[in-house]
Give the backbone structure.
Amino acid sequence: MFFKKNSIETKTADEINKMRVAGRVVGEVLDKLSSIIKPGISTKDIDKFSEKYIRSKNMLPAFLGVEGVKYPFPATACVSVNDEVVHGVPSSSRILRSGDIVSVDVGAFYDGYYGDAAKTYPVGKVSDSALNLLRITELSLYESIKFALSGNRLGDISNAVQRTAENAGYSVVRDFVGHGIGRELHEDPPIPNFGQAGIGLKLTAGMVLAIEPMVNIGGYKVEMLDNDWTIATKDGSLSAHFEHTVAITENGNEILTKV
């Protein structure tokens, strides 16, 4: 998925409110999937549920038809299993088994604005190492959000992700990043999950950021699979992905996709 903007746009209170509405629906999808994801369902089942829910709220799926390297994304949800990092293409033949972990990335479009979030779920009984990967990746998201404040630097967010993940012995994906979001799904600035604190773009009120740690048990290198969409770890190690859309305000920040 590719960036559409070449400049950073701050949002008005009205624009952030529209993104709040879209973001809540995205958060609701991810929340409801917690009770739906279980051994025996297909990744396409997850996609169908996500699309049905988003459309039931009179919104449009954000990812369906997004341009890719060779063809548009064919689904509502990116559903990535085990060593798949992001952009997993749902399939009725991909059946989840106990012990899997599965990342679901969902976006919604409402009244001209986007919301975007992701969560990685355990499927049935999973290993302690997989559970710890999920815990640390989610922690790295919330630790980084603490730095999404007016007056801080973009590097503060990136460094918080990297520090949290690497202190636990994991690596962060470097080839894919978080992003600004608003009237386009992917806006500037790109938000790497690694970097030096105290440097980079100065954050200001009105910025809205999709912060999304992608953390691997093994090395940080990734590769694209033959479907020209799905990104997987190069060494076959497990990967987890968590994301929230966050608005920077005069009084701190607000997670727009949290239920």
